[in-house]
Amino acid sequence: MALKDIQVKQPYVGSTVIEIPASGSKWEQWFLLTSDRHHDNALTDWGLEKEHLKEAVARDAGILDFGDLLCLMQGKWDSRSDTSQCRPEHTEGRYLDSVVETAVDFYAPEAKNWIFASPGNHETSVLRRHETDMSARFVDGLRSAGADKLVLGTYAGYIRFNAKRHDRKSSKLIMGYTHGYGGGGPVTKGVIQTNRQATYLPDCNIIVSGHVHEQWSMNIARSRLSHVGKPYVDRQLHLKMGGYKREYEHFQGWATERGMPPKPLGAWWLRLYMNGDHLDFDVQEAK
Description:
Elements: E1 7-12, E2 15-22, E3 28-34, H1 46-58, E4 62-65, H2 95-107, E5 114-117, H3 121-130, H4 134-144, E6 151-152, E7 156-165, E8 170-178, H5 193-200, E9 206-209, E10 216-225, E11 231-240, H6 254-257, E12 267-275, E13 278-286
Parallel strand pairs: 2-7, 3-4, 4-5, 5-6, 8-9, 9-11
Antiparallel strand pairs: 1-2, 3-12, 7-8, 10-11, 12-13
Helix pairs in contact: 2-4
């Protein structure tokens, strides 16, 4: 089976279901998990983006993006606006329109691999200020370019992966996601949030977030009781996703004036596979 056989549904607000046919002992399905692309910013590394996008095509991987795909800071009424960080094609009087159009053009060659996109705080800021939904406009544009499986998510929510085996039984994994919140913390890097999230997201096998431009993973071991009363231990994996925007190397601008340190670039590869009769996963850095 391949990515083309996947079905994506959204039965409830905040809930996305990805149904995957799983057959054979060597079956696996890859996904690229990204956040904070800030694609239209002049400091964003388009080369690294393309490298990961082409690798996603080579792996037949679905692409899941969790917000701030668009930077959108150089328009009117944004206190962070800095025309030096604006690409030339976005300075011709149609800022918001041109940002969407150029992003769709950039991602169109890999459109078939896009599965999911949700807004970040940069997109929701424009929605509040200008009453236009940039995430929805991007999804509509990329769907027109061939992303027939792409759906729009909410700022936070759940993604349920259902692997349907040849014996017609299914096995699931649940991912909780949020674009993110807070400042990340210069020392904790946002890791302190994992135990808080584990408390109010108990059903999740994986929890992913971005926003603070850090990159790390952390496992939390959990003592559980099965539906037949058998004790067992499982894990909840927390992933913090980096991004593609290079700020520190320029030694000037908003991040430098705030004393912000260098930030890691990149994303995560998620590999799903069958471990006996249940769906399992591992992750690798995309760097």
